[in-house]
Amino acid sequence: MAKAKKLENKPVWLKYTEQEVKDIILNIIKKNPDITSEKIGLILRDTYGIPKTKIYGFKISQILKEAKLYKEPNLTNLTKKEEKLKKHLEKNKQDKRTGRSFIITRAKLKKTKEYLARKKK
Q1: In the predicted structure, residue 7 carries a pLDDT above the cut 90
Q2: How far apart are CA 52 and CA 86, in angstroms?
Q3: Which end of the chain has fewer CB atoms at under 10 Å, N or C?
Q4: Overall average pLDDT of the 61-86 stretch
Q5: Is the pLDDT of residue 1 over 60?
Q6: Measured over all CA atoms, what is the biggest interatomic distance in the chain, rounded to whole angstroms?
Q7: Is the pLDDT of residue 74 over 90?
Q8: Helix axes 73-91, 96-120, angle to 10 degrees
Q9: How confident is the model at residue 13 (pLDDT cuts 50, 70, 90)?
Q10: In sequence order, what are the residues at sequence separation of 6 or more whose Cβ sits closer than 8 angstroms to the Cβ of residue 17?
Q11: Cα(4)–Cα(59) distance, rounded to whole angstroms?
Q12: Quick check: helix, strand or coil at residue 100?
């Protein structure tokens, strides 16, 4: 696995240490286990003022993998989308556009699962 390139200079206004950022990431994931690394990055930026974790020389996904809390974001997002479309189709059976979108989403989900299974081998 490639390590994130550490940027030379950390901004002066950024007061968090590397360990504090790691602790923040783990606290966020413990509060909401369904959250993806992408959303954690947004929370770090918006709430804590941390623009990127690459400043510290690591990625959010690396921290989550070390703690064995990492979930593949593509798989999570496609599963949520499939559930939403399925609920919509149960209420609106004549919605052809959503029916097609549901089929395409299921195909993407299947392809992603197959890819991840191949990748693990």
Answers
A1: no
A2: 36
A3: C
A4: 94
A5: no
A6: 57
A7: yes
A8: 150
A9: confident
A10: none
A11: 6
A12: helix
Q: Taking the model in full, what pTM does it have?
A: 0.77
Structural domain spans, the chain:
1-71, 73-120
Is residue 101 within 8 Å of 89, Cβ to Cβ? no
**Which amino acid is present at 61?**
S
Structure tokens of 74? Answer: 């593509």
Q: Contact, 27 vs 64, CB < 8 A?
A: no
Q: What is the DSSP string of 10-42?
A: --TT----HHHHHHHHHHHHHH-TT--HHHHHH
| Rounded distance between C-alpha atoms, residue 81 and residue 88, angstroms | 11
Q: What one-character-per-residue DSSP string does 41-89 give?
A: HHHIIIII----GGGGT--HHHHHHHTT----HHHHHHHHHHHHHHHHH
Cα separations in angstroms, 83 against 79, 86, 90, 98, 104: 6, 5, 11, 12, 13
Q: Which two tokens stand for residue 46?
A: 């918006």
Residue range 94-120: average pLDDT?
A: 96
